[in-house]
Design a protein that fits this description.
Structural class of chain A: alpha/beta
Number of strands of chain B: 8
Oligomer: heterodimer
CATH architecture of one domain in chain B: 3-Layer(aba) Sandwich
Number of domains of chain A: 2
CATH class of one domain in chain B: Alpha Beta
Largest interface: A-B, 49 and 51 residues
Order of helices and strands of chain B: HHEHHEHEHEEEHEHEHHHH
CATH topology of the largest domain in chain A: Rossmann fold
Shape of chain A: globular
Number of strands of chain A: 14
CATH topology of one domain in chain B: Rossmann fold
Structural class of chain B: alpha/beta
CATH superfamily of the largest domain in chain A: Thiamin diphosphate (ThDP)-binding fold, Pyr/PP domains
Strand content of chain B: 5-15%
Distance between the termini of chain A: 41 Å
Largest sheet of chain B: 6 strands, parallel
Helix content of chain A: 25-40%
Radius of gyration of chain A: 20 Å
Number of helices of chain B: 12
Order of helices and strands of chain A: EHEHEHEHHEHEHEEEEHEEHEHEHH
Distance between the termini of chain B: 56 Å
CATH superfamily of one domain in chain B: Thiamin diphosphate (ThDP)-binding fold, Pyr/PP domains
Strand content of chain A: 15-25%
Radius of gyration of chain B: 20 Å
Shape of chain B: globular
Largest sheet of chain A: 7 strands, mixed
CATH architecture of the largest domain in chain A: 3-Layer(aba) Sandwich
């Protein structure tokens, strides 16, 4: 058991897999000698060499094209896109090429590749380096989408993503990088498509992702002080989606909330609420409520960004008001 | 077959190829290879014409982009490529697919949307793929597949094979960012990849010179990436073959990528929706004299191949295309059992438990 930061867990998880599979390679901007702009790849080029940990030009289409071409010809690949906002630059590669080609070719090709990217706000970087875009990826058929919230999950879900034969978009949250937690010794391999109940409760279910998980947990502590027992679910994997865990929790509590960092419209929670409404409607004691970033580009100033992202206060207030019958946020 | 490196297959100004040009009659290509080139050229031509006929019979839905007039490029490269090499094409990818050995019946069936199509009807005209034959896909968004070809070349290099990846694309592609990203990466990583620009003078409906900063859309950009500017007669299977052999050998030697501009002409419109009325009649007429099929036919006669032998090849190909047509038409329309398959590597499409 060692204490690892979320940031260090990224390189730790990748190293575990690169030691296991000598064919696995990695490419991206500033990932080799520089160790990544978020220092998530420190030490990898030293251990695995520049042929397996390759620096690239600022050419996001070329990065993902190379990843795709290598993956479809037998080389498993990890590609880094520095900020998730930059996925828009190479969205054709993701949405049209990587995601669709297996289906279009009736299964002739597959893509064992992971696209890692730093996602989310809280760093005061402004609208082009801060957005949570996991909902972009979630809506594309053919992509798997993962967003861990703890160092151990970074390692385990990284391994699961790398070993998965399909393309996975792996969102690492910028504002979780410095957080530390114990990580067990030995090989860690998790499973995609599994949500985790991170706090048990009986009155409300709160589904959260990435940075919103610790906020939901803190809110749950405060709600408990007010007599509301909240069950918190770390969704972890948007595709595949562990609906069984969400549905069974809601059946128990009768109340369902999401805490989402993505902008409001078509955020991932909208799909979850839709599933709960269709399949657990008769278990509900009140409306499903989404707590999200408003439908705006993220502002830069600390005070404004803090107002935009779902806060512990907002979660507590929204859940309390809803349980008291006061309607939604 | 090794080429004579001193042999000049390059197209010199004026760029319009001269149908009377006999300089390649004595090119270092043996007769057996040339007959194989002729057979392939016939196959691509007759297949494309048949695809067009099937449109007119309303058997092909959606759209299609034929290579009529441009078949010499796929023919020459198809002959020079080795099994195991990788081909990446655009939506105008029928000829390149057939040139790598895709079954002509399965290719036609795919255009007809039948379950015996090479993609089971899931891809259609713009996405012909046959991985077993090295045909790694037809990509219908301009530019992307140059980057993907780099990846296959990178993979071959990492695996220590002598495979080469070839990406075919149109002149219009040279104005999109992915073209430039791909060339730069191929050069800095010294990848075994060949980029082949099929310059048919039109970006869809617009003359390429009206929307491009330089006269030769690919060759004039080569220098920006430290590559040689190579322009060839894309209507001459021999010229293409010689250029292909050179570029492939260079890649296999570890000397990195090449960029070849093959000048050609699209006999028809951009797609089935395009009657191509925007082209000057004189230009269309001038290029008719440079149609690769009769021009190559004449070359083979000049070097002593009997007319009867060429006639036999033409008839044999026609029989193949007829059989392919029957095969395609006999296919069933795919049903529900395949709709939800092959999103994931496990064969399924489940996104939840």
């Amino acid at each position: 058991m060692a204490e690892l930061s979320y940031r260090d867990a990224v390189a730790y998880g990748i190293a575990q897999e690169m030691r296991r599979d000598p064919a696995l390679v990695m490419l991206g901007e500033d990932i080799a000698a520089a160790g990544g702009v978020f220092k998530t790849t420190v030490g990898l080029v030293e251990e695995f060499g520049p042929d397996r940990v390759r620096d690239t030009p600022i050419s996001e289409q070329a990065i993902l094209g190379a990843a795709m071409g290598a993956a479809m010809t037998g080389i498993p690949v990890i590609a880094e896109i520095m900020f998730s906002d930059f996925l828009a630059v190479c969205w054709d590669m993701i949405a049209n090429e990587i995601a669709k080609s297996r289906y279009m070719t009736n299964g002739q090709v597959s893509f064992p590749l992971v696209i890692r990217t730093a996602n989310g706000g809280g760093a005061r970087f402004g609208a082009q380096h801060s957005q949570s875009v996991e909902n972009w990826a979630m809506m594309i058929p053919g992509l798997k989408v993962v967003a861990p919230s703890t160092p151990e999950d970074v390692v385990g879900l990284m391994a699961a993503s790398i070993r998965d034969p399909d393309p996975v978009i792996f969102f690492e949250h910028k504002s979780l990088m410095a957080g530390k937690a114990e990580v067990p010794d030995g090989e860690i391999v998790d499973e995609l498509g599994t949500a985790r109940v991170v706090r048990e409760g009986s009155d409300v279910t709160i589904a959260a992702l990435a940075l919103m998980v610790p906020r939901a947990l803190e809110a749950a502590d405060r709600l408990a002080e007010n007599g509301i027992s909240a069950e918190v679910i770390d969704v972890r994997s948007l595709v595949p989606l562990d609906t069984a865990t969400l549905l069974s929790s809601t059946a128990k509590t009768g109340r369902f909330f999401t805490v989402e960092e993505n902008p409001r419209l078509c955020g991932w929670g909208a799909e979850l609420v839709s599933i709960i409404s269709e399949e657990a409607f008769w278990n509900l004691d009140g409306p499903c409520v989404r707590i999200t970033t408003p439908h705006i580009p993220l502002p830069s100033a600390a005070s404004l960004e803090d107002l935009a992202l779902p806060s512990v206060d907002r979660i507590v207030e929204t859940v309390t008001r809803s349980v008291d019958g006061g309607g939604s946020a | 077959m090794p080429t004579d490196p001193a042999y000049d297959y390059a197209l010199r100004p004026p760029r319009l190829p001269d149908p009377e040009d006999r300089s390649l009659d004595d090119a270092p290509i043996d007769q057996e290879t040339r007959l194989a080139l002729y057979r392939k050229l016939q196959e691509l031509r007759q297949w494309s014409k048949r695809a067009h006929d099937l449109f007119l019979q309303n058997l092909v839905k959606g759209t299609t982009h034929l290579s009529l007039g441009m078949e010499a490029i796929a023919t020459g490269f198809g002959m020079a490529l080795k099994p195991g090499d990788y081909t990446f094409a655009t939506y105008r990818g029928h000829a390149h697919s057939l040139a790598r050995g895709m079954d002509p019946g399965k290719a036609l069936a795919e255009l007809l949307g039948r379950e015996n199509g090479v993609l089971g009807g899931k891809g259609g005209s713009m996405h012909l793929t046959d991985v077993e034959k090295g045909m790694m896909g037809s990509y219908a968004i301009i530019g992307a597949h140059l980057c993907i070809a780099n990846g296959a070349a990178w993979s071959a290099k990492m695996r220590g094979t002598d495979q080469v990846a070839v990406a075919f694309f149109g002149d219009g592609t040279t104005n999109i960012g992915a073209f430039h990203e791909a060339l730069n990466m191929a050069v800095i990583w010294k990848l075994p990849v060949v980029f082949v620009c099929e310059n048919n003078l039109y970006m869809e409906y617009t003359p390429i010179d009206a929307i491009t900063a330089v006269p030769n859309p690919a060759a004039d950009r080569a220098g920006a990436y430290g590559l040689d500017p190579i322009i060839i007669d894309g209507n001459d299977p021999d010229a293409v073959y010689l250029a292909a052999v050179d570029a492939l050998e260079r890649a296999r030697r570890g000397d990195g990528p090449s960029l070849i501009e093959a000048v050609t002409y699209r006999t028809g419109g951009h797609s089935r929706a395009d009657p191509a009325k925007y082209r000057p009649e004189a230009e269309v007429e001038a290029w008719k004299d440079r149609d690769p099929v009769p021009v190559y036919h004449q070359r083979l006669l000049r070097i002593g191949v009997p007319e009867a032998e060429l006639g036999d090849i033409t008839r044999e190909v026609a029989a193949t295309i007829d059989a392919a047509t029957e095969f395609a038409k006999a296919g069933a329309h795919p049903g529900e059992e395949t709709l939800m398959t092959e999103v994931w590597a496990d064969g399924g499409s489940a996104w939840r438990n």
